[in-house]
């Protein structure tokens, strides 16, 4: 006698893991984040304070998402294995139920995490430093301490630069500047990142603001000259390529009539910069 199966007993291990992941609550994810940091932090003397931090994180119900990664992964893989985008608006909404004293306590916890992150950064452990900055951002009150949040985003951007995660670093610099539009370190970092990623116009605009805030900034002055020349060179190259494509298209259209673009000459008026087109029956 044969037994029939409805297929429910054949669910793959991957499907079960996926269902388990989907059933996890935000609180479980936060618990995992804090517990991992408690295990990995080299400074153990403040263990009790960090346990208090874990309770504080759970009570504040921060909004964030992340994926696990091993310490052995290469730095260049960092951007592909972690999603640490923080919902500042969600945090702001959650903070409305906190007292001023609770907000102050959360800010102090965030300061401690930032200091520990700075130490890890100095030691070259950029991944763990970035994680601590992320947890600090989850705690630091959004409306009450904008400058502190700007610094945390700026520090995390610096860690991501070291990890070659340029796109994420640009996003963090931009977040920092939303909290403090005149934050010089974030402006300089973003200007460099824009230039490194061939976003020359954006880089030029950042350096213009840097020079406006600090006219004595030599780096900004040199960058303005360098970028202006690079942008002009790029635009000329693009114009040449565009004219070449237009010429090829024109020759294709004119060929049935026994003509080519050589029959038409463009002349620029030096006084106005405008162009006129002259027809030449017998071009040389």
TrEMBL record:
Q: Does this entry carry the keyword Transmembrane?
A: no
User: What Pfam families does the database record attribute to this sequence?
Assistant: TPR_8
Outline the subunit composition.
Interacts with the GAP domain of NF1. Interacts (via TPR repeats) with HSP90AA1 and HSPA8.
User: Which keywords belong to this entry?
Assistant: Phosphoprotein, Repeat, TPR repeat
Please identify the protein, giving its name as recorded.
Tetratricopeptide repeat protein 1
Ranges where the record places region Disordered? 1-23, 43-76
User: Would you say which domain of life the source belongs to?
Assistant: Eukaryota
Q: Where are the TPR repeats?
A: 184-217
* Annotated Basic and acidic residues bias: 1-11, 46-72
